[in-house]
Amino acid sequence: MSFQFSRFDWFCFWYPPGWLILFNRHWQHYHPDPEGWNWLEFGLFLIPGGFYLALLLRWMRLGFRAPKPTFTEPDPIYQNAFREEILFPIVTRYFQAELHDAENLPTEPPAIVTLNHAGMCFPWDFVCLGVLLGRKTGWFVQLLAHPIFFDHPWLVWWLPPGWAQALGGVRAEKDSFEAAIAEKKVLLYAPESWRGLVKGWRHRYQLAKYDPSFLRLSSQYQVPIVSTVCIGNESLHPWALNSQTLAKWFKMPMLPVSPLVLVFVLFPSMGVWAMRTQLKYYVRSRQLPETELSRAESVQQAEKMRSQLQEEINQLVTRS
């Protein structure tokens, strides 16, 4: 039986601290989750500081320990349910996302779909693109994500164990990336890596240096590269700067600092939320794999692609 939005779910949809409730409620609808959040704890998410009391209650309920981590295989059936029942309303009603120039997409997998990354928050720019591509093509689209989304101690509390794997997340590590490419999958990839995510509000329209590894893998496994531009993702977390000092203290790869952080301290469940902004995606070009590239050639090709896409972004920003 599919997940149906109740009045409470629609309240959570439009109330920022409620998005984490939606994610967990949807998981619990399809999976047994005895160690997950319960209704009392969900209710506490919605009041200032209530998340900390909910965390304490859950920790006591589990016998003064953290939830047990589990490994879950990618689940295309659940990914489709989550995409249609939770993500699609967020993508269309909240972010009002649009996909342009879809005729530039390949007719069938595999593909490496690259995107300029921004926002310094939960990767909604990639999530929304994955939803739009999945609905447009029917592909099982997978996101190459930082290991923090798989095993960071904080996320074990926020999201259900195995959640990222079930939704098709691929760890942004050399072996995992290469294995996914070898299996001819459709991957969403940020060539700027974490340099793009942490560049902050001041450099929001400037592409950071590309990591050339995706070009070598494209050449090795003969997988085309589809360059895509997103306009609007810079406003997912506006006015944010990365604090390296705080990030090291909290053992995080980045830690954004902005006026919104004060609200986040009162409502930590807002970690999966982002500011409302319209996300517009433009499929700019499809590059067929070349013969095997040397290290130097891949670096040169990566910089050429970055420069061309920077010009495209400048033009799109000027027109918007």
UniProtKB/TrEMBL annotation:
Keyword Transmembrane helix attached: yes
Q: Name one GO molecular function term.
A: acyltransferase activity
Membrane-spanning residues where? 39-59, 254-275
> What keywords is this UniProt entry annotated with?
Acyltransferase, Membrane, Transferase, Transmembrane, Transmembrane helix
The protein's name? Phospholipid/glycerol acyltransferase
Source organism? Leptolyngbya boryana NIES-2135
